[in-house]
Design a protein that fits this description.
0% strand; 11 helices; Serine Threonine Protein Phosphatase 5, Tetratricopeptide repeat; mainly alpha
């Protein structure tokens, strides 16, 4: 991407960081984000993914601080609110977390598979499994079939034995197997 369009280096940076988060290589994810920040230090998505790295490293307070700063500067970024809600719930601040999950957030999540996944995770951390699974299913129906991440994301660990979660993961895997058979 960067070779074709050098202007996309910041976008490439936070997307590469996302892959390293999936692999739990937070050090490499941080390096990628630092490269993006060197080009555009105030880019909101660089900050959002930096906050996600902090979250998965267990540095929740730092994650909350960064996300609150992003939303203060960019209050229209409703898609970030579920990530903040995840962090607030991880701190036990479920009421404040729920305040982030506005009708506008749900509307945006209906059209974006990342945001719907983050919303699902936010509901899950509030103990609202039915809502969480509904939004996970929305994420999947919008095209997010990253079952390897769903199964390894620490937020979802307690759901691994839940038959509804297992069924969703099996459905994705079945879709992939079926797609593989058709391409042969």
């Amino acid at each position: 991407m960067v070779r074709l369009s050098p202007n996309e280096s910041v976008l490439a940076s936070y997307n590469r960081a996302r892959i390293f988060v999936y692999q739990r290589d937070y050090e490499q994810a941080t390096r990628e984000l630092e490269q993006g920040a060197a080009i555009e230090p105030e880019h909101p998505m660089i900050k959002v993914f930096t906050a996600r790295v902090h979250y998965y490293k267990g540095e929740i307070d730092e994650s909350v601080k960064i996300l609150q700063q992003v939303l203060q500067r960019h209050p229209q970024m409703d898609g970030v609110r579920p990530i903040l809600a995840i962090c607030l719930s991880a701190q036990g601040q479920h009421t404040k977390a729920n305040e982030q999950l506005t009708p506008k957030v749900r509307q945006v999540a209906e059209a974006d598979y990342d945001i719907s996944y983050w919303l699902a995770s936010a509901y899950l951390l509030q103990g609202r499994q039915v809502e969480a699974l509904r939004w996970l299913e929305t994420a999947i129906s919008l095209g997010n079939e990253n079952y390897k991440w769903f199964e390894s994301d620490p937020n979802w660990t307690d759901m691994h034995e839940d038959p509804r979660f297992v069924e969703l993961m099996n459905r994705i895997k079945g879709n992939r197997e079926h797609a593989g058979e058709q391409s042969e």
